[in-house]
Amino acid sequence: MNSEQLSGRSEAPGFGSKGKWYEKGGFLAEVASRYLQVNGTDVTEAQSYLLLMLGSTLFVDKSRDRVRPVVNLFLDELEEIDQYSWASGTLAWLYRCLGQASRAGARGVAGCLTLLQCWIYEYFPGFRPSHFEPPVVGPDEAWASRWIGQPATGSVADPSVRLAFYRRALDSLTPSDVSWTPFHQRPHQAVRRSLYTGVIRFADIGEFYDPARCLRQFGYRQMVPPPPSRPQRADRPEAPGGYVIRIPESFDAAWDALLSHMVHIDMYSQPWRRYPYETTVDYLDWFVAHSHCRVLQDDGDADRLVDSAAVRFDH
Predict the structure, then answer these.
(1) What DSSP assignment string belongs to 39-61?
(2) Which residues are 155's β-sheet partners?
(3) Are 175 and 42 in contact (CB under 8 A)?
């Protein structure tokens, strides 16, 4: 039995009365039932388990109960599972989901939100669960396990008030409120591919990854980055359903090129000397000219919205 049958793509005998293949994926519950069958082979059970885990953790979509068909492509040859870069694939899928969620017509966000939430906790201590000091994890433990069982504190009935609060909190951040190198002073020494510059992919989804735009996370002084790479096609309409980014497969060759995994000191900048948020003298002027420096407009609406409610946050 192949992985397509595991997720319901074929009318496999005994798969279930529905036996359907949905355009956007098979139901996770049906995959789980296949995994629990007592007459399954070791290969079938392994494929079912992996499909269930990948569909419910790393490559989650907004349906919440289906797994994308493309995941099947990586499971037919189990001996090749450890040859894939699951981390970069997860990040590429999350980048695409965040891009779609940024559209005005979006009503939700997909992707590995556990990764996003842990990233926020690591780099922005002010948004961590209150009164909680994350423990030190062992060498064989997942770093994200530091945040297990720590729900966010503070509540408010009106989501718009809570949203306004966090927007104002983001606008109030100062450089000292950010943990610039939470993992290691030179994280790329432990994970060399983190300095890769190029395209990361999950199946047919490609996204650009450029550490030159966040050099302070690697212990370097931030400089004005080079112009971004251009995709073959980019459609970013108001409706997220029409969001399309296409990148030629020729860009993928950089993944195996040594120079794509190195920081060129003469091209970028030197390590910081006094504080971890150092920049070159021209960077801030460039940043102001090319970025949205504030989330909120300067019209006072958010302040009035927040102050009009009795809001208590323990952050």
Answers:
(1) T--HHHHHHHHHHHHIIIIIS--
(2) 312
(3) no
- Strands annotated E in the chain: 26-27, 66-67, 198-202, 205-209, 233-235, 244-246
Q: Cα angle vertex 276, ends 273, 277, to 5°?
A: 115
Hey, which residues does 201 pair with through a beta bridge? Answer: 206
Place of tokens 């994200």: 144
Residue at token pair 């002010």: 126
List the domain boundaries for the chain. Answer: 3-84
Residue 126's nearest CA partner among 172, 162, 184 is 172
Distance CA 266, CA 276 (A): 19
Q: From CA 78, how far away is CA 74, in angstroms rounded?
A: 8
Instruction: Report how far residue 138's alpha carbon sits from residue 124's, in angstroms, rounded to the nearest whole number.
Output: 22
Are the C-beta atoms of residues 300 and 248 closer than 8 Å to each other?
A: no
User: What is the reported pTM?
Assistant: 0.81
Terminal CA-CA length for the chain? 51
pLDDT of residue 16: 34
Span 192-224, pLDDT tens digits: 778 889 999 998 899 999 988 988 888 888 999
Q: Which one, of 67, 165, 145, lies nearest residue 110 by Cα? A: 67
Task: For residue 207, list its beta bridge partners.
Answer: 200
- Nearest Cα neighbor of 122 from 154, 145, 90 is 145
Closest by Cα among 204, 183, 186 to 195: 186
